[in-house]
Amino acid sequence: MSDSTTSVVGLVLGSQDSTPLDFWVGVRDGERLQLDDLVVVHTAIGNGEHVTFYGLVDIVRKRFEGSQFDTDAFRVADGTLPADISYAAHVQVTRVEPEYFVPPTPGDAVSVVHGEEFRKALYFDRMERSVAIGLTRTGEPVHANLEFLDGTRGAHASISGVSGVATKTSYASFILYSLFHSNALGLDAANAKALIFNVKGEDLLWLDKPNVKLTPEIRAEYEKLGLPAGPFQSVAFFAPTRKGSVTPMPDTGSRQRGVSPYVWTMREFCRERLLRFAFVDGEDARAQIHLVITRVEQALEKAAREGDQGTANVVVDGTVLNSFSDLIELASGPWLEGLLMTSRVAGGTQDAFVRRLHSAAERMGHLVSGHSEARGRTIDWSAQQVTVVDIHSLHATAQLFVVGVLLKRMMDLKEQQGGSRPLVFVVLDELNKYAPREGWSPLHGLLLDIAERGRSLGVSLFGAQQTASEVERRIVGNAALKVVGRLDAAESERSEYGFLSRVGRVRATLLRPGSMIVAQPEIPMAILLRFPFPAWATRASEVASDETGADPFARMSL
Questions:
Q1: Structure confidence at residue 548 (pLDDT)
Q2: Which residues contact 296 (CB under 8 A, 6 or more apart)?
Q3: Fold of 130-261+378-543
């Protein structure tokens, strides 16, 4: 690609104010300037010195010069009123070199930039470590500073957009692919991990399969970004065990082969104090029921650590806990009353605890077992680069439980290791459900902890949601990379999208799938980009028919 700019497309206008931060360009006849074009202007400031202005086109307009009335357009079209067409574009300055903040001079030539000049316009030349995140409309690669994703100077990404149109999870997957299949991570690549929660459908259960719909044009786009066009190279898939199955089996439909079932032993449940994640109810943490949960967790942990560590079950007060039903039976008897005797907990609160335990058992009880078959069935993300955990078929309570347990384990492990390496990237869709702005839960607090301390521990959260305005403010605010796909018109006006210009908010309501607007700390304006069609399969129909391993009876109705 050439490092020089294109030919001159216009001149800085003198009929509009020109300032150090923005100016207007008159476009020459036969030339074209459109939204998102990057331009350069060289201005002489005396004593042989020059200042170079780089900027992004954010407004383009045409009008008849000299016409005063709306009906003049008809006269000009009929040829009865002479008029010239004024074709002009507004440019928002992105960079000034050297930093002399004087306005460009009217009449200065304006050129569209490509290659190295394009990199300078968006500060890519100053990024010591960068990762490709997409392409402009004209095919120029767009990069993000890796230091704002790996915790060096920042971490986390917030991706917002309308469900089914904004392709939020697809874009998060693409960023991971770019991180793991380029030289961006350097020495960190060997040990870096990604934990992806598959929240909707089974689209993410095919990351290890090449997409049969790839075309030469799509492959060329990956080549422009310096990436191979293929599937993820190191992936493991986990799905919840089916309800009622004696031997754990993955509860999936379109894919069976290569998917491992997951279930926690009752001993793990008690020893790691996971009961709290079965009560993610949005109540204030100071409510009495949380005292009951804490006391029960303490007692279960004590029993789990004192008993036979080689068994999957736990014996508490003479009761063998093999399932949630056994735990309910234990809590419904005198054991709970004796445990809370000195805590001054009202009888109604104890009853509420048991009722919620019943509800949790129905929704996620099959994910905890005291039988020997459950041993070794937990999710291990250490053996591969990317771990996909399917939760889409689970009840909302069970989804919250799985996400909470895994994130707690991950944070505990990172704190034990100390330091920020190895890096861990977490992809979680529907973030507004797990960390809502209103209410509280153990998972809410855990995600907030990741947002605020994850940078120092090498944990970067890629959170996706339909509406950033409904997510805990501090989680969105701590995201270094802010991304929007197609937005609802009302949502686009919320303060969470303050990084978008007026025009940017309108454009966000018109974006097509595959187009995103990305804001990052070092670039003063959000950039519209597109990312290539996935090189990995996103559904069974994109996989070669002999590789699906589908179970034709998995979803057959009875």
A1: 54
A2: 275, 331, 336, 339, 353
A3: Rossmann fold (3.40.50)
